[in-house]
Each structure stands twice: as C-alpha cells, then as structure tokens.
C-alpha cells in the first residue's frame, strides 16, 4: 500500500469524509490540496485532521460552503519546496497548465515575497486558489498607522500577503493583504464605535438589516473564551504600492473583514452546540435553508470552530474535523 493510500485509509472517517459531506462541488481535482497535505506531512507529527480547515460563508441570500485550506510549510528549509506544493495542490487543469510555464507570474511573486510560513486554500464557490504567505515573526498592526505612509510598503509590510488566482483563467489574479489589530475580543470589534484605524470607519455588518441579531448570536458563540489572540483584518483587492492617494482612498473604503481566533483548548466551540445561534445568523442573512443542509451534513463530525470572520454583509465560520469525540481538549498533536 502506498503512503497516499495508507493516509486515505487511516483518515477515511475524519477529514476526507468531512470534505465529501461538507462540500457540494464535484470537481476532478477537488482532493488535490488534501492529497498534497497527506504527502508532505507523512513523516511529521501532524495528523491531516489537525491541518485541514473548512469554511462556510453566510452572506446575503446564500451560503458558500465549498472551501477549504491548510498550512503547508513552516521553515526556511521547507520553503524551497513551496512552489512544488502550490503546483501539486492546484485544483484545476487550467492552473496546472499555467504553472508549467516557468516564467508565470505566480512563481515570480512567490520568489519575490520571500516568506516561509504559508497556507494554501481553494474556494470553489468564488472559483479562486489562494496562496497565503505569512510574516509571523514580525506581524504588522494597522491600528495606529497612517495609511499614506503605509501604502508604499503595503504588501511587503503586511502580516499576510495573499494572492488569489482565478482557477479557470489563471492569468487573472488579485492581491489581498492582512494586518493584525489591537483588539481584545469579538465583542470589542462589534461595538458600534469601533474603528480598525482612525482613517477607516466601522462597516462591519452595516449591510444587514437585522445586525443586532447577528451580534447577539456571535457574542453567545464566543462567550467564555479565555485565550486572547490578536484579531486580523483583511483588505481584499488591495491597491498597488504605487497607487498614491487614490490607493489610500481605496484602502479606506475597502469592504474589509475581521477574523477572530476562537480556538481555546479549555473552551472549544463546537458547531453542534451552537446550531441555534448559527441559524439565527442565517435568518438575518436570508440563507437558512442552505445553512440547515450544511449543519445536517457535518453533524456527525462534531466540528469545532477555529475562526470567525465578520464583514459588512457576511459571517464566515472556519471549522475542523476532530478526533475529540469525547470533547477532551488537547493541543492537537500526536502523543
């Protein structure tokens, strides 16, 4: 039995089956990212279920649930293989063909960014392949920065520099950047007067009629968390670093989202325990039918929520499969 076959066999009751249950897409390369994670972690102390994260984005009138991601490389020594990981995990033939050109834009961008800690993600609803390159040693905060001074070094100074590639037409791609925030909790971020930066107004949940219902549900889900981590703000389609004042205006008006880490080993937040709250959010966003189907599909896996992202008109739950069927929190490494 090959290494890959052995992993698929061992993990057949957790991550692989969860991917099949959670996703409604039927793409030939749907499992490429999963298979690549199995391959590169065969000799490491990680289980696939600890690395693969799925997500469900509740937005106005619809649910996007065909999305998943994973951390890929962690050290400078491993980074030399990162482009191989990117190619192997590519979710479409069009992307794989594009990567065969050694001078493609993605290869040049990866070399230019020069970061080792990385994530890969596939979003079949938006039809994009995402490459995340982190700077975990010197994460950038945006709260007190002047956007005019920040713009010329926006991408290079970001906490996460992200490239989002169209999986059907890879010549089309956009950049996103992420920064950290000095906020203590989701409750603070959801306060009406909260601003992520003096030049950026609070627009979270502003496009939802019944936003208070969403706020109440999110606060209920996050109650009791003791571990405090810095929230992260994402600016999609970020301007180029030579954009001048127009770039600052673009950044100030961006439809940003803020992510909160909800992983607390002493207070894990299981999706099954917060079905009512999630359905309340779906009611406010008019996507209840799709959300009920998704919750029913993943019920047997007793998933926990690792992150929650909130935007002007959406709430996204990032969740993982787990072997913690007895709800006995661990540090998620093999003994």
What are its keywords?
single chain; 335 residues; alpha+beta
Model description:
- By secondary structure, the protein is an alpha+beta fold.
- It has one domain (3-320).
- Helices cover 33% and strands 21% of the residues.
- Strands 1-2-3-4-5-6-7-8-9-10 form a 10-stranded antiparallel barrel, surrounded by 5 helices.
- Strand 9 and strand 10 (314-320) form a beta hairpin.
- It starts with a helix and ends in a 15-residue tail after the last strand.
- The model is unreliable at 1-12 and 324-329 (pLDDT under 50).
Give a brief rundown of this model.
The protein is an alpha+beta fold and 335 residues long. The protein is 33% helix and 21% strand. It is built from 15 helices and ten strands.
Tell me the series of helices and strands, N- to C-terminal.
HHHHEEHHHHEEHHEEHHEHEHHEE
Beta percentage is: 15-25%
- Mean pLDDT equals 87
* Domain module count: 1
Assembly type of the shown chains? single chain
Cα gyration radius (Å): 19 Å
Structural class: alpha+beta
What is the terminal-to-terminal distance? 25 Å
Low-confidence segments, ≥5 residues, pLDDT <50? 1-12, 324-329
Determine the number of helices (DSSP H or I, runs of at least 4 residues): 15
Q: State the total count of DSSP E strands.
A: 10
Strand order of the largest sheet: 1-2-3-4-5-6-7-8-9-10
Q: Biggest β-sheet: count, sense, barrel? A: 10 strands, antiparallel, barrel
Estimate the global geometry from the Cα principal axes: globular
Q: What portion of residues is helical?
A: 25-40%
